[in-house]
Design the sequence.
């Protein structure tokens, strides 16, 4: 089974989990990087005028730099991101829209400031049509990460 770990991380927490997972599973790694990277000011959700709030309210697409090479070759995709506004960040939706998900097994993992996974999978499903979302969870620490990797091994 060929596995891709694709992740977005604005502040580094999800990146650490994604890299550890890819290493444990011997999977390929793709970082979802916005064409215009986020600054600290951009992700200050306490400011109503911050980029993150504008994107959220405007349901905006956030263009992604680069593409996964030979996406069709993967059977299984582990998609990781921080929980933003109780779901996946817009840039993750935009990423998903660029690929054909038919037949893929999709596992969602997230880090958060305390929110659970909530309806994240249902919200993302329209952008990954054809994939089977096998699991969606928030990883809260190293033990969680180990358990997740073991289940996938
Ligand atoms: C714009 C924005 C929105 C967020 N919304 C939530 C939220 O709804 N629930 C939550 O628990 N944490 C929320 N967080 C916190 C992040 O999910 C958390 O800090 C995450 O671990 C960051 O991951 P990263 O370091 O990979 O970017 C938000 C953070 C940002 C920047």
Sequence:
């Amino acid at each position: 089974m060929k596995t891709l770990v694709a992740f977005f991380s604005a502040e580094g927490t999800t990146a650490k989990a994604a890299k550890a997972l890819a290493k444990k599973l011997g999977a390929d790694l793709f970082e979802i990087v916005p064409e215009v990277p986020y600054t600290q000011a951009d992700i200050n959700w306490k400011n109503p005028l911050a980029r993150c709030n504008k994107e959220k309210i405007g349901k905006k697409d956030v263009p992604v730099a680069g593409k996964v090479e030979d996406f069709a070759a993967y059977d299984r995709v582990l998609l990781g991101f921080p929980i933003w506004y109780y779901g996946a960040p817009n840039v993750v939706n935009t990423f998903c829209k660029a690929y054909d998900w038919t037949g893929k097994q999709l596992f969602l993992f997230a880090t958060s400031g305390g929110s659970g996974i909530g309806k994240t999978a249902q919200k993302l499903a329209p952008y990954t049509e054809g994939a089977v979302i096998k699991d969606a969870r928030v990883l809260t620490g190293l033990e969680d990460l180990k358990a997740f990797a073991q289940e996938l091994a």
